[in-house]
């Protein structure tokens, strides 16, 4: 008893639903289908707390049952049955239940129907019920006041369970109530493990004379029908029986009454005939001794099915309830279960309760997760007004409206999608691309805007594409055009808005080729001149970054002479002005003069200048040991008390920031941009992981990435980053360093600096490279906007073209760009721990490059198939998980396991 009450107390605390009579309803989903809006109430007859159904379904209409069957004429009508939700539209309408215990667990699902002439037609409908993609039951009525109850025990295959009503042309489907109860997943096992669901056939509380059938102390809320035929006696007890021995936990009222035959030697018999000769039945029989069995007496029982023994002889316990079930299904048309006393038993047999189920094969398969996600995303992006509920393709006779599927034994996929005249607005969503087997896509007569995206060409099976009657603009991507010309793709577009070749897009376009040719001529001339100059300079060639003399420390006057008295400014950095210099042998170098104030700031304190100088020397000497292909070579420094300067190799193409905003960027292909990104990432990777101790740059930005004449990128200015000891990577600083637009928000808030702060800044750099925009840009209305906020809205609608620099003219692999943006966005995550390491970034960017190279190589076939997910959709996409069921923990191990035998499932 004590255990019982402790359990109930715990249960009550956990329960979120209303607790009535000490009975918690944790995990119960009780839906009053068709109920008034926003209603939550406790049904006083059952103590069960019901909610309205709108959160579970977005189709159908709510109607009350007709006056004749409703209140007040029919005062005994259970409250949930007073109204129904009916489904005049669509073949298949589904409720979506999200059980709290998640997938892989066993749930009891019960649907209740009472027609009550709700539609005034006085015509009893007939329709089918599905649980997920599998047929569950047909719903038929004998009269308008009959309560038809369907119940199934099912394992959840995913986080959601769909209960679907299918119109089979015999009247409009409707439903009165829908309930879900979490079960113990170790009970109600069959030889098929989790491969079958059980559909309730009968649940009888034998021997009980006075019950309502639904007991508040049945934690699974099963409904037990009292059943005692005239030839049976009833025995009850008020003593204690342990119902917790097994997971079945029959309620007290059920187990504390038992039937026995009126005449001692008779058996207790139950028989039934199945309509379906292939039906497989499972029976669960409950036994507990309710009487005081005397010493010289005994109650020994055996169970027979169709005359054959299906159990050994057993003695019911007077201490606990036991449940026996057949380990192999009963099949055939006629069934006859007989509970008999064994030959050496002095007492008559008893039976406390019995449940009979039929097995439901779960042989229909679902649509692939990728297609489900894609179509759900399309549904929510465009707020598609169709009856699109449950699985898109399954059951296969009733796919979603406008969808045709290809079926196979392991999964289904969407092969045709007709969304013509469906009121779609906005750009063509990226999600279409993920319907990988799509052969036909009809988007005609909608309000679609924007360009015809190139990713449509990734749909390799696409044979028919209709985009007519939209407001699409621009040109048709080359890859689609090619397929249309080859006759592989039937393409319909509005000729007046869209043109087939790029040159006709608008007037300016024709000018472009001329400008390009002019530029080319200028470029060639320039190249020739440069070559000649180079050749002249090659005499006395400079090899490597080290200075010829091995000299690294310079005086101010030497620096002054090298720079020809600071004659030519080539840049302005955060720490000072950069001058062009030239060594005696002609090697060009860049000299960065450090102004004192910035150096003080960089130390975060106002230390005396001699101390600063000393630290500077130490760091400069250390930095001279850092060499990497993607780090601007630091060739020397100056520190003579008067001034401090850093001397770097000269980079002909300046910094990336200037380069991106110059006309040069016109020729910067996606591949070149990827090379620059990879180079920079490798430089950063070396600072973080290749240096001992690791170096945190603290001011990663496009202005600090330099490009040589081969457009190889090198990171500069790391010379001013603090060199951190290896064992103390998180530093608390007192002033935030860095450049606005690049500062890691976490560093900004906490002053804690680590490599992930560089990663954040590098994420901004990556976004600048792909968008061609500055980290902080001006919007049309003059406000300032961060490049992250510029990119986000495009990602939400899956529009990669909006993100990518228009100067690329659409010449890039969409896969590559998506992956790249994914990497960039992961770098700018709010929390440092969620950002990738530089090693990871380098390897991801290399994948982007591979995808782009694949496109360039085979432009028509496009890149290798690599699924890019729409990670940035804000619409709630269900959290599908592809783990399989754990098939061992669900099945009860049945002993006495001969063919068609009963085995006790509790000791
Ligand atoms: C259904 O009945 C309830 C209460 O009897 C009432 O408030 C509600 O307006 C009715 N709904 C309809 C659609 O008639
Ligand atoms: C309706 O059918 C049920 C089940 O057969 C029966 O119990 C009930 O009496 C019937 N009611 C009417 C009004 O005929
Ligand atoms: C149940 O299904 C799994 C795979 O889903 C299969 O491996 C197993 O053999 C099936 N078990 C039975 C009894 O059919
Ligand atoms: C049936 O239950 C009611 C209420 O619990 C009780 O008053 C009545 O005596 C019971 N009748 C029988 C026959 O047990
Ligand atoms: C579920 O049933 C199993 C087997 O009957 C039992 O061992 C386990 O304690 C039960 N779990 C719960 C939460 O009741
Ligand atoms: C069945 O009940 C009747 C009346 O209550 C009683 O006379 C008879 O002995 C009972 N039979 C058995 C086998 O207990
Ligand atoms: C058991 O013993 C009692 C007396 O204690 C006797 O009345 C009864 O008949 C015996 N029953 C059997 C089956 O021997
Ligand atoms: C296209 O856009 C124009 C104005 O932007 C609008 O007037 C027209 O109705 C649109 N056409 C379609 C087919 O939506």
Automatic annotation (TrEMBL):
CC annotations in GO: membrane
Binding of ATP, residues: 592
Localization annotation: Membrane
SUPFAM superfamilies: L domain-like, Protein kinase-like (PK-like)
GO MF annotations, alphabetized: ATP binding; protein serine/threonine kinase activity
Record field: transmembrane: 510-533
Coiled coil regions, renumbered to chain: none
Enzyme class: transferase
Superkingdom, natural source: Eukaryota
Domain Protein kinase residue range list: 564-849
Record field: compositional bias (Polar residues): 879-894
Keywords assigned: ATP-binding, Kinase, Leucine-rich repeat, Membrane, Nucleotide-binding, Phosphoprotein, Receptor, Repeat, Serine/threonine-protein kinase, Signal, Transferase, Transmembrane, Transmembrane helix
Region of interest (Disordered), residue spans: 879-907
EC code(s) of this entry: 2.7.11.1
Reaction(s) this enzyme catalyzes, per UniProt: L-threonyl-[protein] + ATP = O-phospho-L-threonyl-[protein] + ADP + H(+); L-seryl-[protein] + ATP = O-phospho-L-seryl-[protein] + ADP + H(+)
Signal peptide limits: 1-22
UniProt topology in membrane: Single-pass membrane protein
The protein, known as: non-specific serine/threonine protein kinase
Species name: Arabis alpina
């Amino acid at each position: 008893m004590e255990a019982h009450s402790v359990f109930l107390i715990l249960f009550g605390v956990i329960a979120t639903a209303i607790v009535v009579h000490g009975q918690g309803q944790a995990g119960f989903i009780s839906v009053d289908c068709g109920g008034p809006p926003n209603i939550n109430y406790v049904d006083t007859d059952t103590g069960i707390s019901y909610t309205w159904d709108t959160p579970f379904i977005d189709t159908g209409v709510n109607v009350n049952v007709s006056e004749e069957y409703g209140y007040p004429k029919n005062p005994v009508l259970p409250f949930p049955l007073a109204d129904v939700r009916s489904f005049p539209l669509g073949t298949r309408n589904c409720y979506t239940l999200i059980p709290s215990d998640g997938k892989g667990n066993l749930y009891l699902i019960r649907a209740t129907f009472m027609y009550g002439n709700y539609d005034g037609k006085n015509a009893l409908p007939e329709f089918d019920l599905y649980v997920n993609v599998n047929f569950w039951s047909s719903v038929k009525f004998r009269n308008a006041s009959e309560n038809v109850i369907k119940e199934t025990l099912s394992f959840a295959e995913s986080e959601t369970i769909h209960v679907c009503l299918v119109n089979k042309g015999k009247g409009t489907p409707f439903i009165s109530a829908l309930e879900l109860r979490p079960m113990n997943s170790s009970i109600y096992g069959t030889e098929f493990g989790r491969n079958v669901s059980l559909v309730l056939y009968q649940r009888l509380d034998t021997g009980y004379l006075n019950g309502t059938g639904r007991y508040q102390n049945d934690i699974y809320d099963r409904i037990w029908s009292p059943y005692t035929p005239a030839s049976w006696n009833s025995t009850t007890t008020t003593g204690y029986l342990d119902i917790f021995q097994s997971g079945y936990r029959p309620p007290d009222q059920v187990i504390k009454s038992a039937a026995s035959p009126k005449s001692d030697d008779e058996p207790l018999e139950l028989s039934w005939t199945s309509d379906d000769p292939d039906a497989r039945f499972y029976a669960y029989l409950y036994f507990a001794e309710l009487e005081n069995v005397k010493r010289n007496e005994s109650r020994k029982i055996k169970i027979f099915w169709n005359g054959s023994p299906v159990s050994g002889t057993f003695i019911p316990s007077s201490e606990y309830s036991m449940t026996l079930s057949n380990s192999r299904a009963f099949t055939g048309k006629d069934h006859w279960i007989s509970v008999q006393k064994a030959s050496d038993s002095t007492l008559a047999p008893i039976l406390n309760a019995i449940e009979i189920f039929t097995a439901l094969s779960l042989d229909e398969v679902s649509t692939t997760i990728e297609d489900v996600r894609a179509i759900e995303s399309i549904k929510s992006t465009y707020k598609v007004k169709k009856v699109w509920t449950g699985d898109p393709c399954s059951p296969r006779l009733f796919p979603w409206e406008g969808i045709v599927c290809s079926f196979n034994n392991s999964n289904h996929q969407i092969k045709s999608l007709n969304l013509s005249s469906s009121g779609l607005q906005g750009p063509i969503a990226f999600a279409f691309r993920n319907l990988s087997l799509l052969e036909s896509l009809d988007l005609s007569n909608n309000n679609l805007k924007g360009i015809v995206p190139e990713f449509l060409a990734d749909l390799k099976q696409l044979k028919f594409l209709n985009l007519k009657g939209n407001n699409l603009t621009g040109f048709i991507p080359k890859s689609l055009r090619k397929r249309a010309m080859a006759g592989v793709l039937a393409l319909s577009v509005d000729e007046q808005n869209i043109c087939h070749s790029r040159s006709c897009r608008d007037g300016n376009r024709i000018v472009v080729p001329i400008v390009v040719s002019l530029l080319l001529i200028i470029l060639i001339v320039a190249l020739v001149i440069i070559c000649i100059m180079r050749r002249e300079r090659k005499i006395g060639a400079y090899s490597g970054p080290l200075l010829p003399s091995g000299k690294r420390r310079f005086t101010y006057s030497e620096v002054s002479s090298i720079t020809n008295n600071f004659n030519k400014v080539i840049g302005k950095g955060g720490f000072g002005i950069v001058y062009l210099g030239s060594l005696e042998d002609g090697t060009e170098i860049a000299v960065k003069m450090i102004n004192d104030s910035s150096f003080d700031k960089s130390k975060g304190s106002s230390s005396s200048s001699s101390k600063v100088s000393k630290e500077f020397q130490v760091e400069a000497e250390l930095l001279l040991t850092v060499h990497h292909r993607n780090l601007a070579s630091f060739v020397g420094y100056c520190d003579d008390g008067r001034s401090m300067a850093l001397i770097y190799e000269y980079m002909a193409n300046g910094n990336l920031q200037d380069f991106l905003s110059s006309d040069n960027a016109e020729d910067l292909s996606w591949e070149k941009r990827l090379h620059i990104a990879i180079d920079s990432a490798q430089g950063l990777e070396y600072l973080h992981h290749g240096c001992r101790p690791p170096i945190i740059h603290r001011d990663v930005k496009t202005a600090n990435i330099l490009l040589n004449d081969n457009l190889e990128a090198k990171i500069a200015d790391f010379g001013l980053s603090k060199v951190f000891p290896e064992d103390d990577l998180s530093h608390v600083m007192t002033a935030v360093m860095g450049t606005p637009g690049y500062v890691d928000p976490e560093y900004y808030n906490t002053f804690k600096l680590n490599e992930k702060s560089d990663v954040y800044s590098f994420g901004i750099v990556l976004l600048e490279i792909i968008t061609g925009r500055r980290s902080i840009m001006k919007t049309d209305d003059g406000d300032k906007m961060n490049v992250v906020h510029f990119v986000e809205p495009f990602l939400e609608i899956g529009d990669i073209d909006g993100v990518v620099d228009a100067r690329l003219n659409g010449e890039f692999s969409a896969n590559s760009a998506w992956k790249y943006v994914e990497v960039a966005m992961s770098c700018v995550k709010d929390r440092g721990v969620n950002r990738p390491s530089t090693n990871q970034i380098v390897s991801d960017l290399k994948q982007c490059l591979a995808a782009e190279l694949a496109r360039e190589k085979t432009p028509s076939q496009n890149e290798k198939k690599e699924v890019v997910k729409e990670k940035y959709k804000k619409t709630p996409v269900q959290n599908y998980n592809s783990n399989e069921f754990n098939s061992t923990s669900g099945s009860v191990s049945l002993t006495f396991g001969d063919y068609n035998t009963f085995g006790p499932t509790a000791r």
